[in-house]
Amino acid sequence: MPLIDCNSTQLFYDLTGREDGPLIVLSNSLGTTVEMWDGVVKLLAPSFRILRYDTRGHGRSPVTTGPISIRQLADDLAGLLDALNINKAHIGGLSLGGITAQALAIYHPHKVKSLMLMATGPFLPPADTWNTRAKTVREQGINAIVDTVLARWFTLSYFGTHAHRVAYYRSLFLNNYPEGYALCCEAIRDMDLRPGLSSISTPTLVIAGAEDPVTPVNMANDLASAIKGSQLAIIPQASHLLAIEQPQDTAELISQFIASVEQSIAHPLPTRAFEAGLANRKAVLGVEHVQRSLANAGGFAAPWQDFITRNAWGEIWGDDTLPWKTRSIVTLAMMVALHREEEFKLHLGPALKNGVTLAELQALLLQTSVYAGVPAANAAFRWVRETLGDEADHLNLPSR
User: Fold this and answer.
1) What is the DSSP letter of 398?
2) Engineering a disulfide at 206: which of 62, 113, 224, 261 sits with its beta carbon 3.0 to 4.6 angstroms away?
């Protein structure tokens, strides 16, 4: 797991995408991790190099003793860029990540090539709200606020059509450090970046979700008005976590904006199969698993990693003819028939993330018993138990 020392802390980070493309840095929102950018990174990776990281006290970046300030989070990002020998980059962030990006542009302007500020603001009162949330998390844990927070993250329509994705991000939210979350709440409580906005001269794009109750459109409009020469874009049918809910619109806005900053041609940069495949592979199997596979390959297996990334993940999983849920079902069925235990277990969790329900998984395994044989299906039921444990029994499966 790549942790890097910077600014007296350690940050988990991931570098994805075209190595010679313009570099974009993406900073996550309060309570999320690098995975919040999966859908956007998948679309940007063929043309851009993307650096994303877990904010201090979130995900795999350990919590440190408090208090934490927004200036400190900006210094963390500046330190991360220094540690990776990056002089300057296009900086994007959502919510807390957008606050961090604003602070970086104010305190470390030489690091910023352009700004993309999503679902964010320079000042987020009232203080009592943040005090209450920090106190609740410290005393009762993250679970005490998770459903209230998620209700503000997504639109009602997204809850109805993407329940599996909501469940996935809910699980990531619950894995955060309570103290790290509380300290960041207090950092937001204490910050007011409005006096420094007039000093920002870098090209800036402000993006808002049309249905965002946390940082609504009027706040985005005020932010854009305070930064000279900035642009404002509104994404319809999007709430607070617009990058998750509308990744296509978000990626297109980012791509077009950076192309204008880079004075690139109007056409998209050419697609690179490896970079596109790597983004797909990380989105399906998880960032850490793929990082380990590449790091452990060595010289002998490196061509194999390149081959499967370009072909399996770039050409096959990158083909939109079949949605990822369907590809997961097909993959699991073939792994049962071929008795490929390791690959079945590897793809089981991602299949659930891609929308396969436990009821559908059960039906799939019962069908494999007819077409692949009872012993094969029997082994697959055991693999599910070994991978998911008691989780499989906690769902309300249909009676037969």
Assistant:
1) P
2) 224
Per-residue pLDDT at 318: 87
In sequence order, the 6+-apart residues with CB closer than 8 A to the CB of 318 are: 276, 277, 280
CA distance 224 to 206: 6
As a whole number, mean pLDDT of residues 321-343 equals 94
1 falls in which pLDDT band (50, 70, 90)?
low
Q: Supply the angle between the helices 358-371 and 324-337 in degrees, to the nearest 10.
A: 40
pLDDT at 271: 54
**Are 47 and 271 within 8 A, CB to CB?**
yes
List strands edge to edge, sheet with 231-235: 3-6, 9-17, 49-53, 23-27, 89-94, 112-118, 204-209, 231-235
pLDDT band with cut points at 50, 70 and 90 for residue 155? very high
What lies within 8 Å, CB to CB, of 205 at 6+ separation is 114, 115, 116, 117, 230, 231, 232, 233, 253, 254, 257
Tell me the C-alpha distance between 256 and 88, whole Å: 19
Interatomic CA distance for residues 329 and 334, integer angstroms: 9
Q: Which of 30, 14, 198, 154 is nearest to 100 (CA)?
A: 30
